[in-house]
Amino acid sequence: MAATVTRLHAMLTVPEVCAELQISRSTFYDWRQKGSAPRCITLPNGSLRVRRGDLDSWLNAREDAA
Hints:
The structure is a single chain. The chain has helices spanning 2-8, 14-21, 25-34, 52-61, and strands at residues 11-13, 41-42, 48-51. The protein is α+β, with helices and mostly antiparallel strands. The protein has one domain (2-61): Multidrug-efflux Transporter Regulator, Chain: A, Domain 2 (Orthogonal Bundle), CATH 1.10.1660. It has a three-stranded antiparallel β-sheet with strand order 1-3-2. A hairpin with a 5-residue loop joins β2 and β3 (48-51). The radius of gyration is 13 Å and the shape is globular. The chain starts with a helix and ends in a 5-residue tail after the last helix.
């Protein structure tokens, strides 16, 4: 169970998110500017992170019901 909790709270970097979604970094930032990217956390140094759970929720919300 500890591994599941750790995975749910894992924070992904922008390159990791882009690789998983198979999109370019510029596409990610375009989506972010338009307010349609997954929720991000801005670290004190300005770097962005995306919680695994937020990415999964974002993907689930975009599922097609077909």
